[in-house]
Amino acid sequence: MKKEDLIKLKEKISKLSDEEKKLRDLYLRKISLGELYGPMTGYPSIDKPWLKYFDDTSIEALLKYEDKNISMYEQLYNYGINHLDDVILEYLGSEFTYRELLNNIDKTAASLMSLGISNNEIIPIILPNCPETRYLIYACSKIGAVPNPIMPTINQKDLENIIENTKCKNIFIMSGLLDKYDENLKNKINSLNKVVEVHPLRSASGLYQLVYLLTKKNNDDFNIVIDKSNNNVFIKTNDCKDNIALIEQTGGTTGITTKGVVITNQNVYASNYQLSNGGFNFNEGDSILDILLPSISYGAAFEHLTLCNGIKNYMIPTLVKKQINSYISKYKPNHIMMGPIHFEFVAKDKYKRNWHFLKNIVSGGDEMSLKLEQEANSRLIKNNSPVKLEQGYGESECFGACACNHQNIIKNGSVGIPHLLTTIATFKYDDSKDDYTTDEELPFGASGELCICGPTVMKEYLNNPEATSLVLKKHSDGNFWLHTGDIGYVSSEGYIYITERIKDLIFRNGFKISPKKINNIIKENFINYIDTSLVLGIPDKIERNVPVVFIKLKENIDVECSIKEIKDFIFNNFKGIEEIKDVVVLENIPRTSVGKLDKKQIKKDYLDIKKQNSKSKIKKLLFKI
What we know:
With 625 residues, this protein is α/β, with parallel strands linked by helices. The protein is 36% helix and 23% strand.
């Protein structure tokens, strides 16, 4: 199809009513299933071949979907009020029913009002995954305030920027965290209207409760605030779908510091709707191992989904890594959402386990190699799991997730098919432009920038119109598309494959280098030597950017011989534009608080060392080949 014909067709589709678009989706599904015959264009956003994988129940839900004026709190309340005696949370030996959950949210909402917190006021919540975090998030929603959950591990600079950007007056923070900040940040926080410290073991029982009693302050801030509440409040807004439900922080690749992703009530409702009706086998009475933080979009979306569907949460407050296998065996959850770093421990586990209870075991939040996917699935089979690993895909800017594999139709190496209400397509990118983006859609199988369209796409970045304009683009079809910065393609069967990050590509003297391709070759040839490796583009005065290889070796190997062998291979096999500028062996490769390789920190450390040219620091931080 010619470019001009495609544009005309998209314009024609954009003029259809919502009801007509739904009927068109039904028509496309029947064509994909072979029930009808009709012309197909060969373009993902027009043909939507993934619709054939949804059953009749999901398609019926798709046809019934409509925007709804309902807050996060109301969604939870509407389910919980009819299941008051059902246990929904378990936290360090304590259980909470919906009655207790809603009651604690009521108390917290009243206490927020007593502090003078007003409608649309942003409330930073710097807490781990504990019940008080849930109370605060839904209490904010109940009174029209805006929760801003933040990881306790956030660095000082980012926290300073958040406080400044949100113009917050009140803050809830984990007990003891203030003591770890420098005096400037302490003074900035203490100058706010109210700083409420919350002990993470406040709601625990048994020995944990004893630790709480021994370590809490004489006057527990959160208890005092709750005790002051003496009335039940609820602020109902008739038109709340576009109101801010919460703000999630993201670093991304468009800036050095964190950005506030504005998620609306409509985003939250649509995410819950498509996950609940998308054929993922989520059922009332199920359970989930809740190891994700609500300060991560991925975590917040699934925590909300489970609370609104009667799926019991086994809440874990700490960042789980090595303990993942024992936690799965202990709690026997039906569902678990994890990241690739967790599956590394699953794949390496030596114990035979019985995980017959699993219904979904999902990987998201970061890229997973095909090798790790295969190793993890092999271990799942040995552990008597009835399900395979499901790779998913999402962005903080697209609340929760936008694509995932489904059991029985899993494609290894793919991140799955778009969710029920979501459209994903690839668009040509132009590396001569600062923001890389175009709205020229590419056909099935063609590699381009993955873009997302649908009701879960964020409203904006908080107080950052420039950054917003770089990722949210109005296309010729009249729709706003989220430009992800990921390079990939959509297969003719509707599966999404990610091959690269645009921002990770190395532009050297006008030529493009794929760091992923180089890294894969190195890892494949030294699988017995290398624990972790990556290739980064480092600024160069002459060549603009040059590739540098960073490696962490496995333990118990001959380091000298291994380094020499790896070095000889790299400098003999990568020539011309792919010639490697430097090879560095790290003692430890830093990761972010959510387990991703911290590329920014690695690059910063490398550049700092090069700049200082300090041999002592090089010896301390890394061994340079």
